[in-house]
Design goal:
With 316 residues, the protein is of the alpha/beta class. It contains twelve helices and ten strands. The N terminus is likely disordered.
Length: 316
Amino acid sequence: MRPVRTAVAGVVLGVLALAGCGQTDGAATSAPPAPAASDSAGQGAFPATIQAGNGAVTIAKRPEHIVSLSPTATEILFAIGAGAQVAAVDDQSDYPPEAPKTSLSGFKPNVEAIVAAKPDLVVLANDLEGVVAGLAKVGVPVLLEPSAAKLDDTYDQIRDLGAATGNAAKADEVANGVKQKIDALAAAAPKGKELMYYHELDVTPYAATSSTFIGQVYSLFGLKNIADEAPDAAGGYPKLSAEFIAKADPDLIFLGDTKCCGQNAAALAKRPGWSGLSALKKDRVVELDDDVASRWGPRVADLAQAVSDAVQKAAS
């Protein structure tokens, strides 16, 4: 999601509610892909059947005109070598830079506009505005890959898209590489430090509890989340008061609202009662890339690296 900042927090949290726990952090788990026959190059053969969020989806032949309405899916497609097969992506898909960004929307999908792009496969994270049924009526294959609820979902979705696009071998390589990096970083985390942290989604401020996808990433490093003690968990995304955060006095602060909202350590220090926070006084404010911190594709390994670096520094 997530993932959720001042400008988009309401929208994203609304999407979570509308989709009934099928989205970022708390999503229904995508079922593992059904086995597909492999060709001699190990890339997978067609037809291929994928177990996605919208059930078993059979793709008759290798897609060459993919439309992605999910920034995470876009990142995955390019990472697994399917970039040349992508014809159009939604207005939020800004990575990698070469992705063919359009005005198509994943939050307000328009079936006619999507069909006009002549897709032979559409990948999306949310079934809003009846888009899945609408595309099915005109015979366009659709893969619904809801926001990951845990890291295993990320690996599954990478492999799903590999099987769906004929890039199974590269997808396995990417999924295994991300998992190995995260596992290695977690294994190297200092033990017994019991550091407390606050992850800021936006300047409201909304936070994320340990039950969310991003919260689980932090948990790998033995960190304690101040948001877990919030009086109202709000589906994993509680709105915290400045007083609550100041009283908790976290050892580490991670900002997921740097690009959207211009937040940094200097901005935090200007908030009433925040200048004395331990994280500010000890230079433990981590400015994350908003997109890396809110998507669940291959760059989740970059998020894990940033958390690892901060924990190592704080523990030294």
